[in-house]
Every structure is written in structure tokens, then in C-alpha cells.
Design brief:
- This protein is α+β, with helices and mostly antiparallel strands and 596 residues long.
- It folds into 4 domains: 143 residues, Elongation Factor Tu (Ef-tu), domain 3; 73 residues, Alpha-Beta Plaits (2-Layer Sandwich); 163 residues, Ribosomal Protein S5, domain 2, CATH 3.30.230.10; 81 residues, Alpha-Beta Plaits, CATH 3.30.70.
- It is built from 16 helices and 26 strands.
- The strands form 5 sheets. It has an 8-stranded antiparallel β-sheet with strand order 5-4-10-1-2-9-6-7.
- Helix 4 crosses helix 5, helix 10 packs across helix 11 and helix 12 runs antiparallel to helix 13.
- The protein is globular, with a radius of gyration of 29 Å.
- 33% of the residues are buried.
- Keywords: Elongation factor, GTP-binding, Nucleotide-binding, Protein biosynthesis.
- It holds the Pfam family EFG_C.
- It comes from Angomonas deanei.
């Protein structure tokens, strides 16, 4: 078969037959690739749409990632990059001609610098060939720009071109690791290595905790192992130690979709600030968009427009959507997990509330973002819910600042969420396992122990091989490959894992038997904790958070007593008389009520 139809020729012929030419592809795709394509200068826009290769046309290049040249040693024709900058930018020329020594403007990570092209390369299979110039429509390598490029970059001979949009990747930071050097003297080298890793890998995230720990966020267990290996062998070249892998979760609320609004009100400084907010879960059609859309980033205009349109069509959200989405977050996490809306129809003088929101919008949005980034269950980001402001009054004569409003809004959003049944949301992989037919039962047993949901099983005709495709929770994926090899005695091939979606865990982590039926089934105390409670307890123990016992104040069967401001003041007065209790100057009053 290899002599009759070589694989390389077959693949190349298929690409030429099925793929669009650069000219046709750019005319169709450029409006979606370039940020604010309508603002591109007319001369540059015309060159981009025509894929103009003439030397006089503006040169526009997009660098999508950096490649380590160590994997090309012995296969490179011509010189390679020096050791300190041993990375080649993998790029495509969209218009003009890219030449060695050409002055360019490079835009990366929001910063624009002026420099020149040191070297350009043509890709020849697995190797590189140094060239003097590269024309439009070609893929190439660019050397000497490692210090300027962070993950991706836009290069142009014109200074006023908008940047290209970054690569669309599935959700990142599913698995996180804390890394630190074995020898404290190597801390500086580790930091330099982490900077290089962040530049080179478009799907890795590097952060520093308040404790000084360096944490890398990866797409999965295999990706995490690869990042650690690259740090040790290439980027940092020091011995490092890692913590146990940590899986990211999210928090949400569930409940019947009714018109009843459970509102939480905060009254600060005897009425100087009155803030009421209610929390609602997203409808199913909106959840499907967030669940399946890998482009779920907070600045994606098309996704936000689609989300806003579906909420306007929903009866429970249509009136609250008259003023549109005020904010979406968590902004730092890069996805749309919660939105902030306003509905003052039930309040007295709605115009006054709307005017106050416009005046203090920055502080209110900052408080909402703080709540969206850290939920009340385990300080994880929120997912699939909306906060609706129903009342907002701030006394302008009280001398309040935005720093006082922010924690008020944050705590009110968290308390409003606690009025509903809460759930954890976990990441789910799409897992594919190839194996022989006689190992089918053992593979099913291993997957079922890890809460896998089988999608399909497809046999390979003409052989005893088959593959199983399933949805596997990310927290259950650790050690799967080793277990499959042991159970199948090496007959199972590698399990392929790819981020699929986020799934709400149906089990209530605060479940406590209350009804007669529940007590008869589980007893007064549940002997075995459900998976939601186990995962929540594990997260809280790792973070050192307080663990609510007996369901806390947020279990589904908990009855919330209404507490007025007068009752609160009476309680404080009694304590003051009996225990010589001195009330603080600024006292926060919290009370709950239901608007039906």
C-alpha cells in the first residue's frame, strides 16, 4: 500500500482537493479572525482580502504559537536559533512579503513594539529551511522574536492594524499543580522557566498565589505531566517538586423554574444603602450554550448576543432584560458563568433606583465580579446563573465610597445564592478507549467505578478490536490508563481524553433526611456520603474552609425564618445589657423576605 499510494502524497492531494485556497479562505474567514475588521485601513483590508503577495503591499503576519527548536536539531537546513532564544514562531503570512531584516510592528499581550525580523524559515516536513523572504499564503517560521511574543502575536508593517483574535481552545486550568524547586536557590530559574512555559504553551496558565506558590493550570493529567517534564528538561532545567493535582470545580444553583423571587436585602448604616438582589438559574437552552460552547470567553460578542437573545425570549427573564446585561463574569476566569441584570418594576420610584445604579455602576459591577469569582460553597467560580437587582438606594449625603459598596454587593449576591439549593459543577472529558473484544467486560467495570457515562461502542469490522466512547468526570481520570493496562493485561491502548463540557452534579452536598420517607430510607444520619458531599468536603478541607454540618443554612429542606431589623436590634440590646456588649459604630443588618 505504501508503494502504491504513499501516505504523504495521499494527504497532500486530499488537502489540495478539499481545502480552500488562501485567497478564498481569507475572504471568508478574515472578518471573524481580525478584531474590529471594519476598522482596518482600506489599503490593508484590500491586501488582506486579495492575499496580495506583492512586495509593495502591507505585510500582515499572525504567529499562533512558539516551537522549541530542540525537536528540530539535525533536521534543520541552515542555522538555528541561539540557546537563549531557541524558539521559532509558527506563523502564516496573510498579505505582502516577509523578509529578513524588515522593520515591523509586533502586537502581543496588548503591547506594541517596533523591531525587525531576524530570520525566516520555510517548513520542510519535520525540518526547517532558512529563507530570505516569504510571500502571502505561506506558512513559515520566524526567529529572534521570542522575547516579544507571549503565546501569540500579530505582525505588520503598518502600525494601525487591529490584532488577530487568539486561538480558540477548550477550557483551560482543568487540572492545576503547585510547583516549587527542590533547592531554594533555584527559585529564580524556576520563575524564568515558568515565563517561557507560559509563552510557548497556548493552553497553560501560570499564576502566583498570595502565599507565594507558583501554580500551573493545564488541560488534563497528561498535559500536566508534559508541562512538568518541559520545565525540568528545557525551560527551567532544575529539579522541581509538585503537589497533588487539583481539579477545578464551579458552583451553581438549581430549582424549579417559577416566577417566585427569593430576594436577599442588605440594609447598611440605617438605610444609607439598601440593596436587594435575587439569584436565578439559567434556563436549559442557555445552559446548553455555555455547556457546549468551547468559545465561552467573556469578551466573545457573538456568544453574548446569543445569550442575551435567549434570555429575552424567556418569560422569566424578558422584563429584566429590558436594560440588557449589565455585566458578565467571572471576568478573570475568561468564561460566562453568571450575568448581572436589573429589574426595578416592583420597587417604589424605579427611576431613582435606575439613576443610582448608573451612578454607582462601577462599584456594583466590581462586587458582582468578586462574587462570581468566588462562590459561597467552596470559593469556586459561579456557573449558569443570573443575579437580578430589584432595589438599589444609596444616600449621597452619607459620604460612602465604592470600596464600601463593593463588599456589600458581593455578600448580598452570595447570600442570595444561599437561598436556593446549591450544587457543584465538574468538568467532564470525552474519553475514547481502544481494545480487544475479550477485554470488554473489564474495561466497562473500570469505567463504571469512575462514574463514566457510556455514549457508544463501535466494533472494528474485520477484526476483534472495538472502541468505547464515554463521558468521564475529570476528577476520576487520574490513574485511568494504568488501571486499564492492569485490568486488560496490556491489551488496552491509550485512553484519549479531551475536554467536553461542564456537568452539574445532581446529588445535594447538604442533604439531610427530614421527611418520614427519607428517614425510613436513609435513617436519621446518612451512613454513606453522596458524591457531591464527598467532593465538596475534599475541596473545603484542601482550602481550609469551614465545613457546614447538618446541611447548614442552605439545604433544600431548610426553612428560612424571616428576621426583621427590629429583632436584630433587640438581640444586640439584650447582649449589651447582660454581657456589657458594645455594638460597633457601623452595623450590617441582614434580613430575608420573599417577593411572590
Amino acid at each position: 500500500m505504501g508503494a502504491w499510494m504513499p501516505l504523504a502524497k495521499c494527504v497532500l492531494d486530499t488537502i489540495c482537493r478539499e481545502m480552500d485556497s488562501p485567497v478564498t479562505a481569507q475572504q471568508r474567514r478574515l472578518p471573524g479572525l481580525v478584531t474590529n475588521f471594519a476598522d482596518v485601513p482600506s489599503r490593508t483590508k484590500e491586501a488582506l482580502l486579495k492575499c496580495d503577495p506583492s512586495p509593495d503591499a502591507p505585510c500582515v503576519v499572525y504567529v499562533c504559537k512558539l516551537i522549541d527548536t530542540q525537536y528540530l536539531v539535525g533536521r534543520t537546513i541552515g542555522s538555528v536559533e541561539e540557546a537563549e532564544n531557541a524558539f521559532i514562531g509558527f506563523a502564516r503570512v496573510y498579505s505582502g512579503c516577509l523578509r529578513t531584516g524588515q522593520p515591523i510592528y509586533l502586537l502581543s499581550d496588548g503591547e506594541q513594539v517596533q523591531t525587525e525580523v531576524r530570520k525566516v524559515f520555510l517548513f520542510r516536513g519535520a525540518g526547517l529551511e532558512e529563507a530570505d523572504e516569504i510571500y502571502a499564503g505561506s506558512l513559515c517560521g520566524i526567529g529572534g522574536l521570542t522575547s516579544y511574543i507571549c503565546k501569540h502575536a500579530t505582525i505588520s508593517t503598518e502600525a494601525d492594524i487591529p490584532p488577530f483574535k487568539p486561538l480558540v481552545l477548550p477550557s483551560t486550568s482543568i487540572v492545576r499543580l503547585s510547583v516549587f524547586p527542590k533547592n531554594p536557590k533555584d527559585a529564580d530559574n524556576l520563575e524564568k522557566g515558568l515565563r517561557l512555559l507560559y509563552k510557548v504553551d497556548p493552553q497553560v496558565d501560570v499564576s502566583v498565589l498570595p502565599t507565594g506558590e507558583h501554580v500551573i493550570g493545564t488541560a488534563g493529567e497528561v498535559h500536566a505531566e508534559r508541562c512538568v517534564k518541559d520545565l525540568v528538561e528545557t525551560f527551567a532545567q532544575v529539579e522541581i517538586e509538585t503537589s497533588e493535582p487539583i481539579v477545578s470545580f464551579r458552583e451553581t444553583i438549581v430549582g424549579p423554574l417559577s416566577n417566585k423571587m427569593r430576594t436577599h436585602t442588605v440594609n447598611l448604616m440605617d438605610g444609607a444603602v439598601v440593596f436587594s438582589v435575587c439569584a436565578r438559574p439559567f434556563p436549559e437552552d442557555v445552559l446548553e450554550i455555555i455547556k457546549d460552547d468551547t468559545r465561552n470567553v467573556a469578551n466573545d460578542a457573538s456568544l453574548l448576543a446569543q445569550l442575551e437573545g435567549l434570555l429575552k425570549e424567556n418569560k422569566r427573564y424578558s422584563e429584566a432584560m429590558e436594560s440588557g446585561i449589565i455585566s458578565c463574569g467571572p471576568r478573570r476566569q475568561g468564561f460566562v458563568g453568571a450575568v448581572l441584570l436589573a429589574d426595578f418594576r416592583g420597587a417604589e420610584n424605579p427611576e431613582a433606583h435606575a439613576s443610582t445604579l448608573s451612578e454607582w455602576k462601577e462599584a456594583v459591577v466590581a462586587g458582582f465580579q468578586a462574587a462570581a469569582e468566588s462562590g459561597p460553597m467552596a470559593q469556586e467560580p459561579l456557573y449558569g446563573m443570573a443575579f437580578i437587582i430589584t432595589e438599589l438606594l444609596i444616600d449621597s449625603q452619607a459620604g460612602l465610597s465604592g470600596g464600601m459598596i463593593l463588599p456589600c454587593v458581593r455578600d448580598a449576591c452570595r447570600a442570595a445564592m444561599e437561598l436556593h439549593p446549591r450544587r457543584l459543577v465538574e468538568p467532564v472529558y470525552e474519553c475514547t478507549v481502544y481494545s480487544a473484544g475479550n477485554t470488554q467486560g473489564r474495561i466497562y467495570a473500570s469505567l463504571s467505578r469512575r462514574r463514566a457515562d457510556i455514549i457508544e461502542e463501535v466494533p472494528n469490522e474485520g477484526s476483534d478490536l472495538f472502541y468505547i466512547r464515554c463521558w468521564l468526570p475529570a476528577v476520576e481520570a487520574f490513574g485511568l490508563q494504568d488501571e486499564l493496562r492492569i485490568q486488560t493485561q496490556g491489551a488496552s491502548s491509550t485512553a484519549q481524553l479531551q475536554m467536553s463540557h461542564w456537568e452539574i452534579i445532581e446529588e445535594d452536598p447538604y442533604f439531610v433526611p427530614t421527611t418520614k420517607e427519607e428517614i425510613e430510607e436513609h435513617g436519621k444520619e446518612v451512613a454513606t456520603k453522596n458524591i457531591g458531599e464527598q467532593l465538596l468536603e475534599r475541596i473545603q478541607r484542601r482550602k481550609g474552609l469551614f465545613r457546614e454540618k447538618g446541611g447548614g443554612e442552605c439545604g433544600e429542606t431548610k426553612v428560612f425564618p424571616q428576621r426583621s431589623v427590629t429583632d436584630f436590634v433587640d438581640t444586640v440590646t439584650k447582649k449589651k445589657k447582660t454581657l456589657n456588649f458594645v455594638a460597633p459604630k457601623h452595623t450590617y443588618f441582614y434580613y430575608f423576605h420573599l417577593n411572590v
